[in-house]
Structures are given as structure tokens and as C-alpha cells.
Amino acid sequence: MQITVRYALFAALSMAANLGAQGVVLALLGPMTSALALAVAVGTVAGFALKYWLDKRWIFNAPSVGIRLEARQIVLYGLFSVATTAVFWATEAGFALLWRSALASYVGGAIGLCLGYALKYVLDGRYTFGKPA
């Protein structure tokens, strides 16, 4: 399977895991404000963990490493996730503010997601799963 298709599929699986975990928490605890915060946290962890494992194993073919290097990889993966999410949000917001329409917001969001995932792929390949300095 082509790496781009696999990467996109893994992103979709990660989103499904995130939303599915949120759904389980909300089904168990009800849609209270505090339950929503917990659901988002649990979903984020579930999606992050799945995407990390899939990317490490099936995108970058990174070998298993010791606990110290694994922790380094997880931290870098998380930091790059936050940074590229900011790219997505900024692009979506920029389009929405510039053209002042819901359609512009969606277009900006789609472009931002593509830019963010492309940047994340490069950063993870070079720094997260590449050879440490």
C-alpha cells in the first residue's frame, strides 16, 4: 500500500479511536460538562497512542528502542502533534477571517490539515523516528 494512503488511513483510524473512546466515556458517565472534558482527554490519549504506534511501525519502520529513547520519541511526537495542530487551526481561522464564510473556514481547515499532516510526516521522519543526535 502506498505510504500516503496508509498515512491518511491511519489518521482516519486515529480520529475514529478518539471519537469512539469519547463516545464510550459519555455513554458511561452521561453528557455532563465534567464528563465531556474527561471524554475529550480519554479520546485524545486513545487516538494519540494508536497513531503513534501505527506511524512508528507501519510508516517509519522504527525499531523498538529502550525506555529512554521511546520516551524521547513519544515526547517529540506529541510536541510535533501540537505544533502541526496549530498550523491547522491558524489556516482555518485565517481563511474564515479573510473571507468571512463557513465555506472558507472548511476550505482553510482542509488545507490546514493537509499542511499539518505533511509537516508532521517530515518532522517525525527526521526527528522523532530518525537517528537521535
Quick structural gist:
This protein has 133 residues and is mainly α. It is 86% helix and 0% strand. The chain has 2 domains: 1-59; 65-133, no CATH class.
Q: What is the string of SSEs from the N terminus onward?
A: HHHH
Provide the residue-averaged pLDDT. Answer: 93
Main pleated-sheet profile: none
Portion of residues in helices?
A: over 70%
Please state roughly what percent of the residues sit in beta strands, choosing from under 5%, 5-15%, 15-25%, 25-35%, 35-45% or over 45%.
under 5%
Number of domains: 2
Shape: globular
Count of individual helical segments? 4
**Computed structural class:** mainly alpha
**Poorly predicted regions:** none
C-alpha Rg (nearest Å) = 16 Å
N-C termini distance: 31 Å
Q: What's the count of strands? A: 0
Outline the structure in words.
With 133 residues, the protein is mainly alpha-helical. It has two domains: 1-59; 65-133, no CATH class. The protein has four helices and no strands. It has helices spanning 3-29, 33-59, 67-99, 102-128. The two termini are 31 Å apart. The model has no long low-confidence stretch (mean pLDDT 93).
Please render the helix and strand layout as text.
Elements: H1 3-29, H2 33-59, H3 67-99, H4 102-128
Could you list some keywords that capture this structure?
133 residues, mainly alpha, 4 helices
